[in-house]
Amino acid sequence: MSKSGSKFRNAFSHSEKRGSPSIKNLPKKHSGTKHSVIDTRAVIAIRWLALAGQTIALMIVAFGFGFDGAFHTAFGLVAVGAAVNLWQSWRSRYQRVTSRPELLLALSFDVIQLSGLLYLTGGMANPFAMLLLAPVVVSAALLDFRATVYLVVLVAFCAIMITHFYLPLPFSESDFTLPALYRSGLFTALLVSCLFIGFYVWYLADKARQANAALAAMQSLLERDRRATTLGSLAAAAAHKLGSPLNTIAVISHDMAAALKGKIAPEDEILGDVRLLNEEVERCRMILSELDRDAQTDNLARDVALPVSQMIRGLLDAKLTRLSERILFQSGARDASQEPQAKPLPDLKYALETLLDNADDFAATQIELTISWTEEAIEIEIKDDGPGFPASVLSRFGQPWNSSREGRDGHKGLGLFLAMTLIESLGGQMRILPSEQIKGAHITIFMPRTSLL
Question: Is 386 exposed, middle or buried (0-12, 13-18, 19+ CB in 10 A)?
Answer without folding.
Answer: buried
